[in-house]
Specification:
The structure is a single chain. The chain has helices spanning 2-21, 39-53, 173-185, 195-205, 225-238, 270-279, and strands at residues 26-30, 36-38, 58-63, 70-71, 78-86, 97-104, 113-121, 125-131, 136-141, 147-152, 161-164, 188-189, 209-212, 242-244, 265-268. Strand 8 and strand 9 form a beta hairpin. The protein has six helices and 15 strands. It folds into two domains: 2-153, 2-Layer Sandwich (Fructose-1,6-Bisphosphatase, Chain A, domain 1); 161-280, D-Maltodextrin-Binding Protein, domain 2 (3-Layer(aba) Sandwich). Strands 4-3-5-6-7-8-9-10 form an eight-stranded mixed beta sheet, sandwiched between helices. It binds 2,5-anhydro-1,6-di-O-phosphono-D-glucitol and manganese (II) ion (2 copies).
């Protein structure tokens, strides 16, 4: 696992440089979910594929940008599912974006996820890692061209911010009600449109909630289970937070049928997630 994190540390400054210096325009293609691909989506995907293939413990890789599983080393132990560039729609306006990695031992699913990491390309280059049953750890990239560990992250029981994803017009009534009740209680809105910076903010502020609910236009949400929701679920749970779906079940108990399946998801500290369960009428689940 540590070898994989070391490889991700090597990848981070390479993609950071790419984002800062290369063409941000569209390629001529769409990915497996039908999103238009930026040249940067394609270039970061290629770079990560190339780097992960250098590791003999990698059995296979699955990218958000590719339809199929790519076999790597027959005797490898881990399948790595990744979103090479999260936040494609906000890179042109110079907001923070990221890369997300889920490390699975066996067929990718909530219970086989053993490690996770994300890189955030912001004003600073940072990385967060989580190992199942252990900790969530924060690293910053410094002058010496190395990542140094900042601390282990532990969330509080309650926060002050709310990051509500999706289109309000299409939210179901229970969701509208829930978000309104948080704002009525004094929560402040924090939403950039990139799950990496939005979840990073909730995590580092020690609490709050990020929601990507099911809605009329997207009954299964928008965020993809293997590359986006599950890695963040492990990161939040290992930091003492919670990550559930709209039925109140832990995301880490879910098993997506297809590699590109999406899942409604909610991440936060205990107080907000318990409130959400009440609002959705699923308080006894999970
Ligand atoms: P990607 O750039 O990999 O397609 O993912 C973008 C995602 C995620 O980062 C973000 O939270 C969400 O899209 C925002 O969606 P809305 O604009 O619908 O809120
Ligand atoms: Mn994404
Ligand atoms: Mn992406």
């Amino acid at each position: 696992m540590l070898t994989i994190f070391e490889k991700i540390k090597q990848i981070a400054p390479e993609i950071d440089k790419m984002i800062k210096e290369e063409d941000l325009g569209y390629s001529q293609n769409c990915n497996a979910t039908g999103d238009e691909q930026l040249k940067l989506d394609v270039a970061s995907d290629k770079l990560i594929e190339h780097r992960l293939k250098e590791l003999s413990l990698v059995k296979a890789i699955i990218s958000e940008e590719k339809e199929d599983v790519i076999p790597v080393h027959e005797n490898g132990k881990y399948t790595i599912c990744y979103d090479p560039l999260d936040g494609s729609s906000i890179v042109d306006v110079n907001l923070s974006v990221g890369s997300i990695f889920g490390i699975y031992e066996g067929e990718p699913s909530g219970d086989t996820l053993v490690g996770a990491a994300y890189i955030i390309y912001g004003p600073r280059l940072e990385m967060i890692t989580a190992v199942r049953g252990k900790h969530t750890r924060h690293y910053k990239y410094g002058n010496s061209e190395l990542f140094t560990e900042v601390c282990d992250i532990m969330m509080k029981d309650k926060g002050k911010i709310c990051a509500p994803g999706g289109t309000q017009k299409y939210w179901y009534p229970e969701h509208k009600e829930f978000i309104k009740s948080l704002f009525d209680e004094g929560y402040r809105l924090r939403y950039s449109g990139g799950m990496v910076p939005d979840l990073h903010q909730v995590l580092l502020k020690g609490g709050g909630i990020f929601a990507y609910p099911p809605a009329e236009d997207k009954p299964k949400g928008k965020l993809r289970a293997l590359f986006e929701a599950l890695p963040f679920a492990l990161i939040f749970e290992s930091a003492g937070g919670m990550a559930i779906d709209d039925k109140g079940e832990r995301l880490l108990d879910s098993s997506p049928k297809h590699h590109h399946d999406t899942i409604p998801c909610f991440f936060g500290s205990k107080y907000e997630i318990e409130r959400l369960k009440e609002a959705y009428g699923v308080a006894n689940n999970g």
